[in-house]
């Protein structure tokens, strides 16, 4: 028989706990929310996020690193002028490294145009450049005679292949998810600020919760007058 009152008390306490208390409402600080919103909007006004800027720097590093390796290869194989004329003007798919350099230029142009200038938020551009790079390098390794030309026949294709896939991983797992998370935080902060703006004015009027002391005194006087009037007249 004692379980029924306990269950009723538990239900009342749970219902009270589910309702927002005045302390929870007072804990909402609109100034902090507005500061967060301004910080997020400031990032939006920058035009490009920090993680996207890092991605663009890595794409630039890809082009410069492949170019450096190609220039070293030109110097090793008999001087820049003679080897450059042989690989560019007398281009041969089976023995030239010039197409690997052009492949790095292709990746740089497409990715910078898509993710720095157009600020694309999709993976199709990086998927296109990585697919073209992988297919071209695999075909060149199978059909060409690069392995017979020394260490650069191994280094340039492998480095280009690895850099292309690192760019894909970095964009898909770092850039796009982090930017989506920051956008969701901005929306949540704006929603919370709107709710705080609606709730705060209702908390300023104390008359909604407390009756004025004059009304209590007046009610006591009225009750005393009624008691005096009800007394029998002797």
Summarize the structure.
With 234 residues, the chain is mainly alpha-helical. Helices cover 77% and strands 0% of the residues. 15% of the residues are buried.
Describe the protein's architecture and organization.
This protein is an all-alpha fold. Helix content is 77%, strand content 0%. Helix 3 (30-46) packs antiparallel against helix 8 (152-199), helix 4 (50-76) packs across helix 5 and helix 4 packs antiparallel against helix 8 (152-199). The longest helix is centred in the last third of the chain and has 48 residues, at 152-199. The chain is elongated, with a radius of gyration of 37 Å.
How many strand elements? 0
Rg, alpha carbons: 37 Å
Q: Provide the residue-averaged pLDDT.
A: 76
Backbone structural class: mainly alpha
- Largest sheet properties: none
- What share of the residues does DSSP label as strand, in percent? under 5%
SSE sequence, one letter per element: HHHHHHHHH
- The CA-CA distance between the termini, in Å, is 55 Å
Show unreliable segments. Answer: 1-8, 13-28, 203-209
Q: Given the C-alpha coordinates, what overall shape results?
A: elongated
Show the helix and strand layout.
Blueprint: H1 3-18, H2 22-26, H3 30-46, H4 50-76, H5 80-89, H6 98-117, H7 124-143, H8 152-199, H9 213-230
Provide tags for this entry.
234 residues, elongated, single chain, 9 helices, mainly alpha
